[in-house]
Amino acid sequence: MPVGTGSTVGALDALADVAARPEAYAAQWKARTGGRVVGILPMNFPREIAHAAGVLPVLLQESREPDTMGRHLLAEFYCGFTRNLADSAAKGALDYCDGFFVADHCTQLLGAVDVVRAEAPGSPVFLGQLPPSLTDEWARGEARSMMRTFVDEMARFAGVPVGDAALSRSIALSNDNRTLLRELFAARRAGNAALSSPQLQAVVKSGMVMDLAEHTELLRQVIQGLADLPRDNRVRLHLSGHLCHAPRPELLAAIEECGAIVVDDDLFTGTRWFSTDVAEDGDPVEALACWYLERDRTAPCPTRVKHETDWEDTLVEAVEASGAEGVIVLMVRFCEPHMLYYPELRKRLNERGIPHLLLETEHEGLPVETVQTRVEALLERIRRTAPVEVSR
Amino acid sequence: MTAPTTDKSSRLAINKAGGKMVADYWDRIFTARERGEKVVWYNGSAVNPIFQAAGMAWCHGEAFSARLAAQHLEGPAQLAGQEYGYVGELCSYARTHLGCAVLSRKRATGSANGTGMVGLPEQAELAGRLPTPDLFVNAYAGCSTGQQWDDISFRVFGKEVPIFNVSMPFMWSNRPGEGYMVGEEWERSSRYVAEQLRELTTVLESITGRPFDWDAYRQNMAYLKQASELRQEAMRLCRLTPAPATFWDWIASVAHINFLPASQELVDFFAAVKAEIEQRVADGVGAIADERYRVYFDGFMNWNHLGLLAKKFARYDVAVVAGRYTHHAFWQEPQLIDPEDPLLGHAQNNLLCPMNHSTKTIERLVLRDCDYYGVDGIVFHSTRTCRAFTNPQRLVAKAAQEKRGLATMFFEGDIADASYYKDEVLDSRLTAMLETIDVRRARA
């Protein structure tokens, strides 16, 4: 079945192309605009600040290249993303970035950022740590202060002032983009199976790389002509995890090929990315600080410390809302916040009788046969316990 | 080169008395409830002088994991953690401590039979001895996992125990002029942490129901300053050849400087350490029998193999004269402490955790040490489940080779999980490094 009209298909192809080759898009954007590109490290640096400065924020993605030159720069027990980031820096594959901004304190990410600074000595690498403990009474003030610093540093980097009006415009544009993404994912949750998981990932991932207005326009084209394709009787799954980068699209495809259909997720390159809007009224810097602090309420993240929110509750609520019959937890190998939190998820899923499967992922090597065997076992378990419809 | 087999190490005699001090400390922790003391579980930096002044019993999670590993008692706790769902690649300090938390919680709630993998005797040994907490305090510098670990402890205990977090900014040095103890980042971060420590004292008042004893706190910090000065002076004597003490001796007194009560006894202990080292210098006695090589140790301690490693390096005639873990942590800048107004200096020493700097700073500190102690090479302990400590190692190794011509080697192990250590790998790599040093000397 076609996923939609010609313009939808064309827009999807364009987004998929950017998602597959972000560096090519950035180079083309630079050539086209003469502007500067800033590499953004996941997860919480607000792209609106770079956009308001007229800079293209490119959220750095895991490349598809095998690690070679960077292998001696970080130990093998770092997550695939950080090792690949170090490798990309060592190969000069990040040279298209004129600078780098980091707002997060993941210890493995810090190791990779140190490599980036060492391998790209001519490019500024600004690390400003947003307060990871969101419960502290001084967290809001610290977050606001750091957002102000980010704005000032970005202005220095871009060589232009970044005023409140420009920030507000970027925030509004970014909110529009998130709204459209939410619409697309809500359609999937409601039963529209027109887009596969790899296609939806490409839609989100391309938005982490592209000029906002350009991405938003393509998103509109995707949505306007999207077919309404009711999902069939495949087993409905929720994907959870992969907190700071994309799982391989081949993995998503392998899961769906087993006779499952993904109906919702909390992936970084999924609902986590667009979970929270930035307030458009009032002081934009304050609004960005609140956005950061609120994100953990709408999409709890184990990399933050917030005692009031529980990822496991949000997960179970999402599963119930979408009618998912099981959960696949995609854990990036060596991701410590996820390793720490996983038992809490497991406990709650077990309490609620929700079948689930843990799959660890790596930068290199995707054992499709093994993955599919395990997924098929999960699906078989779900089918065996599902109520049987008896025709009379 | 073949490895000789006799024990050529000569550890400081004072270590024996030091060991008893540590054992006594843990016994007091295990019996804290019997004395009606409130108990705080904490992780990360040394905020314990504040707990001591508040009259609480303090249990450092990492220290307890390290102690279990050093005594080869970590197995049951790690098994309990595994059963609960923690993956084996997770920080083994956290895994071990969380395993204890799971067991303690089960015991406290009367469900000690709930675990199928850990036998009841082991549960009793571990869970029965570590008192459940009245408060969690997290003060982790340089490691995001440390902060998340305590949040999970809080959850394992059903969110029923209050938790206080001290946020420690990572010292990245964005601008020229920022770095080790200098620049705007340093000044701002110091004040930020000091204010959080002040806030901690009010939290403790609410837990204990007593006003915080600032006089006791000042006294504690004065003791720590004295103890640290003695320790630093003794460390510097190891510049001499033969080295009168080694990294392994400093490891043996990490507990003392890190979390034992600040007291005259502590000061006396480090005075005795220094005196023994001075006597060795006077007598020309080295910490190993035949010092032929001097190396620096970069990495977290491998607590499962302390004795083995001390003997192994001595057998190869290698004096491990200093290390990032021992020499760049634990009140190593005592001059920052003003005993009359100690909060700022306390906060600053907490910030100076050896994992809390960017590679640029760590490289400078390590190479400075290498110059001072006159080492031939650096041994990097690639600490499997401690990414924070491992972060800068490859870049520092590169700098040591290129800027100083030092020989370097890596071996893999872990802080508290014995399974990651490969003895033969260390032997072969150490042999190769020493041969490299021999060749360089022959060519010189």
Please render the helix and strand layout as text.
The complex is a heterodimer of chains A (392) and B (444).
Chain A: H1 6-20, H2 22-33, E1 37-40, H3 47-52, E2 56-59, H4 80-91, E3 99-102, H5 107-119, E4 125-127, H6 139-158, H7 164-190, H8 197-207, H9 212-224, E5 235-241, H10 249-257, E6 260-265, H11 284-298, H12 311-322, E7 326-332, H13 336-351, E8 356-361, H14 368-385
Helix pairs in contact in A: 1-2, 1-8, 1-9, 4-5, 6-11, 7-8, 7-9, 8-10, 10-14, 12-13
Chain B: H1 14-30, E1 39-44, H2 48-54, E2 57-60, H3 61-70, H4 74-84, H5 92-108, H6 120-127, E3 135-139, H7 144-156, E4 163-165, H8 184-208, H9 214-237, H10 247-252, H11 254-259, H12 264-283, E5 293-298, H13 306-315, E6 318-323, H14 324-327, H15 343-351, H16 359-373, E7 377-383, H17 387-390, H18 393-404, E8 407-413, H19 423-443
Parallel strand pairs in B: 1-2, 1-3, 3-4, 5-6, 5-7, 7-8
Helix pairs in contact in B: 2-9, 3-5, 4-5, 5-6, 5-7, 8-15, 9-12, 16-18
Notable features of this structure?
heterodimer; A: 392 residues; alpha/beta; Rossmann fold; four-stranded parallel beta sheet; 8 strands; B: 444 residues; 19 helices; 54% helix; globular
Q: What can you see in these coordinates?
A:
The complex is a heterodimer of chains A (392) and B (444). By secondary structure, chain A is of the alpha/beta class. Chain A has a domain at 25-166: Rossmann fold (3-Layer(aba) Sandwich). Chain A is built from 14 helices and 8 strands. In chain A, the strands form 2 sheets. In chain A, strands 2-1-3-4 form a 4-stranded parallel beta sheet. The model of chain A has no long low-confidence stretch (mean pLDDT 95). The model of chain B has no long low-confidence stretch (mean pLDDT 94). Chain B has one domain (14-234, 241-443). In chain B, the strands form 2 sheets. A 4-stranded parallel beta sheet of chain B has the order 2-1-3-4, with helices on both faces. Chain B has a 4-stranded parallel beta sheet with strand order 6-5-7-8, with helices on both faces. With 444 residues, chain B is α/β, with parallel strands linked by helices. Chain B has 19 helices and 8 strands. Helices cover 54% and strands 10% of the residues of chain B. Classes of the chains: A alpha/beta (392), B alpha/beta (444). Chains A and B meet through helix 5 and helix 13 of A and helix 7, helix 8, helix 17 and helix 18 of B.
